[in-house]
């Protein structure tokens, strides 16, 4: 399996219970969980809004319903669910372990409208790329020092984003250029962070994690010339086709061996070669950690034992109009 | 990446004419055994390290208008397609091991003289092992030495039958079932694709896939075919001493990968290239 899976050696699994709504306990549970596999808790977001006051107004003949946000008796901002604005309600700032000199941070908090929410932060810049995950009763969470995957298995509670936000993926992918064995062809990607799933913005429904054409946010840093001449590729926000993809083979149906077992492939992560051009060819930047792809449609949630470990299917995709092989991604649940 | 290696490795040999003798002698040199069979054919038997075997039937034949040819047919019962290579002077090349061989003309992709033939026994995962005979073959010159086919010299994936010039000269035999090579289920080598290049429209809008610096991804040479020529492909196993790179490359170009030398058998095929292991220099023996 080491031929296909890039193991971190420190992965974990936890079910986050939101059956009573998004609570401090759920956020705390996620914080404790990622911390236990190597993430750092950078901050408790204490400057929360503690009161929202709805204040409907007319602007240009249209009704707007902005919220006035208070901390104590102080007005600290305004929030409009249609147009964004101040969103923090409470939570934690969490940071992945450092990989190849870089990390990704995320703020997790309880949003007054979209409930369980995550803002991702690439390379220490300001929080951006909000992901609204909604109020499902249970999130299954898989984490390792460089990665967090959350998949909803519960039922959506009222007022959430049911049908749209069933998955969330954040990863600093394994980069072949960091392989100490020097056995693989080197891709000169210096840094890469990718995020997909959830709800991309307050006005755009992003959706689930899929094998192909994910809504994805990525920040990559490349070196195409020499080791000391970096050509950084900035942070594309790609809420459309040709986002993050997991390459597979080319058959209309499951690609099986004669013993009816699928082929196991590495979980390659590919992104558009030109972040500003959604139609540009996809290129592999690295691998998902503690994961592999099989060439068969397997129902989400299926668990298998392989290499003495328990794996759970988190994503599966059937027939493709482009004639790609159906596929499923398995991630490590239990060492 | 797992690549099955034959115990004694491959040999590469180039020759100018004398196709019958040179192919026969090269195969015997890498472990194929000459066995008895019906005259006037020469029969060679290959047995893989897993105990799977096949036979190759060869002879020289004068086809009148087409001149002197060497005829190749795989299968214990000669159930495979028959390929013809014209006995012309040319810079022929064969890469062979105890399980398979690839013969071609150096620098030529699809030769109307019928210059490319390859075939052999795949490595088969132990849980899928058939008992006895298993083989695959591809070749130009099917039916006539003037036909060029869609061999692995030309493409990893199989093309549908195109009347006239490019027949799908591919077939295989597994566990007693023959898969003829004239349709969608014929043998092919698997490679990775991606939907990313939606501005690439020549082939189902699918693109090949490689690393951001355009270096290829290498994967084992997974060979698949359907139970019949029109059924869904199943992966039967891996080619020995071989791998697939996911980008096009010039035929017969050589690379070094994993401290070994490899030669590309496939010419400028968009979805990838078949790399064959070349013999090692041999200096590693000094470490023992």
Structural key phrases:
heterodimer; A: 335 residues; mainly beta; 8-stranded antiparallel beta sheet; 5-stranded antiparallel beta sheet; globular; B: mainly beta; disordered C terminus
How would you describe this structure to a colleague?
The complex is a heterodimer of chains A (335) and B (288). Chain A has 335 residues and is mainly β. Chain A has 1 helix and 25 strands. In chain A, the strands form 5 sheets. In chain A, strands 1, 13, 14, 15, 16, 17, 18 and 19 form an 8-stranded antiparallel beta sheet that branches. Chain A has a 5-stranded antiparallel beta sheet with strand order 2-9-10-11-12, covered by helices on one side. Chain A starts with 11 loop residues before the first strand and ends with a strand. Chain B has a domain at 11-191 and 223-241. Chain B is globular, with a radius of gyration of 18 Å. Residues 161-165, 198-203 and 282-288 of chain B have low confidence and may be disordered. Chains A and B meet through strand 17, strand 20, strand 21 and strand 22 of A and strand 16, strand 18, strand 19 and strand 20 of B. Strand 20 of chain A pairs parallel with strand 20 (234-245) of chain B.
């Amino acid at each position: 399996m080491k031929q296909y899976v890039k193991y971190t050696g420190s992965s974990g699994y936890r079910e986050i219970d939101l059956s009573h709504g998004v609570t401090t306990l759920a956020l705390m549970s996620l914080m404790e969980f990622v911390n236990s596999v190597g993430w750092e808790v950078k901050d408790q977001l204490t400057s929360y809004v503690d009161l929202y006051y709805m204040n409907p107004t007319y602007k240009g003949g249209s009704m707007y319903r902005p919220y006035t946000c208070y901390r104590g008796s102080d007005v600290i901002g305004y929030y409009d669910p249609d147009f964004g604005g101040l969103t923090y309600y409470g939570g934690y700032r969490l940071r992945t372990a450092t990989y190849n000199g870089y990390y990704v941070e995320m703020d997790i908090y309880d949003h007054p409208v979209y409930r369980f929410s995550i803002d991702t932060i690439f390379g220490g810049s300001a929080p951006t790329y909000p992901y609204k995950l909604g109020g499902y009763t249970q999130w299954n969470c898989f984490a390792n020092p460089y990665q967090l995957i959350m998949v909803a298995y519960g039922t959506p509670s009222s007022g959430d984003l049911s049908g749209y936000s069933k998955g969330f993926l954040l990863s600093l992918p394994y980069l072949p250029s960091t392989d100490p064995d020097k056995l693989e062809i080197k891709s000169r990607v210096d840094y890469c962070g990718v995020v997909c799933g959830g709800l991309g913005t307050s006005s755009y429904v992003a959706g689930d994690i899929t094998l192909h054409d994910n809504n994805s946010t990525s920040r990559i840093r490349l070196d195409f010339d020499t080791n000391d001449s970096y050509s950084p590729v900035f942070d594309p926000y790609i809420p459309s086709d040709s986002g993050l993809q997991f390459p597979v083979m080319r058959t209309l149906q499951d690609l099986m061996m004669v013993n009816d077992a699928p082929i196991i492939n590495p979980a390659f992560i590919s992104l558009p070669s030109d972040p500003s051009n959604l139609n540009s060819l996809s290129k592999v930047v690295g691998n998902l950690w503690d994961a592999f792809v099989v060439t068969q449609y397997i129902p989400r949630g299926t668990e298998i034992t392989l290499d003495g470990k328990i794996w759970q299917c988190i994503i599966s995709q059937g027939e493709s109009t482009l004639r790609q092989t159906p596929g499923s991604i398995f991630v490590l649940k239990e060492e | 990446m797992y690549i099955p290696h034959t115990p004694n490795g491959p040999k590469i040999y180039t020759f100018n004419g004398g196709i019958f003798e040179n192919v026969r002698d090269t195969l015997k040199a890498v472990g194929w055994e000459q066995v008895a069979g019906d005259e006037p054919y020469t029969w060679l038997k290959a047995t893989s390290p897993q105990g799977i075997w096949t036979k190759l039937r060869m002879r020289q034949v004068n086809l009148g208008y087409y001149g002197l040819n060497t005829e190749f047919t795989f299968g214990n019962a000669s159930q495979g397609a028959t390929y013809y290579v014209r006995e012309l002077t040319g810079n022929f090349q064969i890469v062979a091991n105890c399980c398979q061989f690839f013969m071609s003309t150096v620098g030529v992709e699809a030769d109307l003289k019928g210059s490319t033939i390859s075939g052999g026994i795949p490595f088969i995962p132990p849980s899928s092992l058939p008992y006895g005979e298993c083989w695959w073959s591809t070749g130009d010159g099917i039916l006539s030495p003037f036909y060029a086919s869609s061999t692995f010299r030309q493409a990893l994936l199989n093309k549908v039958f195109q009347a006239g010039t490019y027949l799908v000269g591919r077939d295989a035999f597994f566990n007693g079932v023959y898969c003829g090579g004239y349709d969608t289920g014929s043998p092919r080598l698997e490679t990775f694709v991606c939907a990313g290049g939606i501005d690439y429209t020549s082939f189902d809008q699918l693109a090949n896939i490689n690393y951001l610096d355009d270096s290829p991804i290498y994967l084992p040479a997974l060979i698949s075919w359907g139970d019949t020529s029109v059924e869904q492909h199943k992966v039967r196993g891996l080619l020995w001493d071989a791998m697939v790179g996911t980008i096009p490359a010039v035929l017969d170009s050589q690379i070094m990968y994993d401290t070994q030398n490899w030669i590309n058998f496939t010419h400028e095929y968009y979805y990838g290239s078949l790399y064959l292991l070349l013999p090692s220099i041999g200096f590693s023996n000094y470490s023992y």
